[in-house]
Every structure is written in C-alpha cells, then in structure tokens.
Amino acid sequence: MIHNCGVEHMDGLLAFAQRWSRFGGGDAEDIMVEFGLTEEAYFSRVLEVLKSSDLDAVTRETIEHVARRRLLACGSADGRTAS
What we know:
Elements: H1 7-20, H2 28-35, H3 39-50, H4 57-74
C-alpha cells in the first residue's frame, strides 16, 4: 500500500515509468534523485499505482513488465509473475 503519496506524486511516478519503460525503467541514481526512493521502493510503488491508473492496457503491461523485471533484479518478491 502507498502511504503519504499524493496524486501529483503518483502521476510523477507513472510519467517517469512511462517515459523510461522502453529503456529498462531508468537508472537507479535518477530514480533516487527524482523521487528519493531506492529502485526497489520506486518499482514497488509503480506496481501499486498501476492498479488504479487509467493508462491503456499495452502501456500498463509494458510498465508492469519493466517494474517486475527490475524488482527481480533487486531480489524482491514483488517481481513475481502476475497471476
């Protein structure tokens, strides 16, 4: 669950994810500078925000794929395959 995450912040998470999805999701350093989050925390939040986003299905699936792949690379269980 996302705590203390306003609408503008959630929009920013998705905008960054969408912009960088074709390049593997963005650099961990850029994520830290932009959001003050580790890449694991960032991609976990992106997956949560995607659940209520109004993005088209293809864009949503692309971002989800990138986020899960990055979480797997971090060793996070959140990178598991969606059911």
